[in-house]
Specification:
- The chain is an alpha+beta fold.
- The protein has helices at 53-57, 81-85, 88-96; strands spanning 15-18, 23-33, 38-45, 62-65, 69-72, 76-78.
- The chain has a single domain, classed as SH3 type barrels.
- It contains three helices and six strands, in the order E-E-E-H-E-E-E-H-H.
- The longest helix is centred in the last third of the chain and has 9 residues, at 88-96.
């Protein structure tokens, strides 16, 4: 990732996609660790209802760990693991196979 400093508020409003191009949501806020002055998560709203059915229906957001962020540009790219978070049975089946 690019280590060039930028205003963290510039992330707010950017769309978030998985590495495979699936829309995940939109950045609404950032979770910060003030002691270490680091971003620890991104709070998403306007969620993809197929990935986050209950949260989207309740108009709630989710926080994605910042370590899942792969790239930040015009959009934010996150690991595909976001797509598997909502289906633990499928993930368990892959481990057992």
């Amino acid at each position: 990732m690019d280590d060039t400093p930028q205003e963290i508020t510039s992330l707010v409003g950017r769309e978030v996609y998985s590495n495979s191009g699936v829309f995940v949501g939109e950045v609404e806020d950032l979770q910060l660790n003030l002691n270490s002055e680091t971003v620890t998560g991104i709070a998403l709203g306007n969620l993809n209802a197929e990935l986050f059915t209950e949260e989207a229906r309740a108009e709630q957001g989710v926080i994605v760990p910042y370590r899942w962020v792969r790239a930040v540009g015009d959009v934010v790219l996150v690991n595909d693991v976001v797509e598997r978070v909502r289906d633990p049975d499928e993930e368990r089946d892959e481990v057992l196979a």
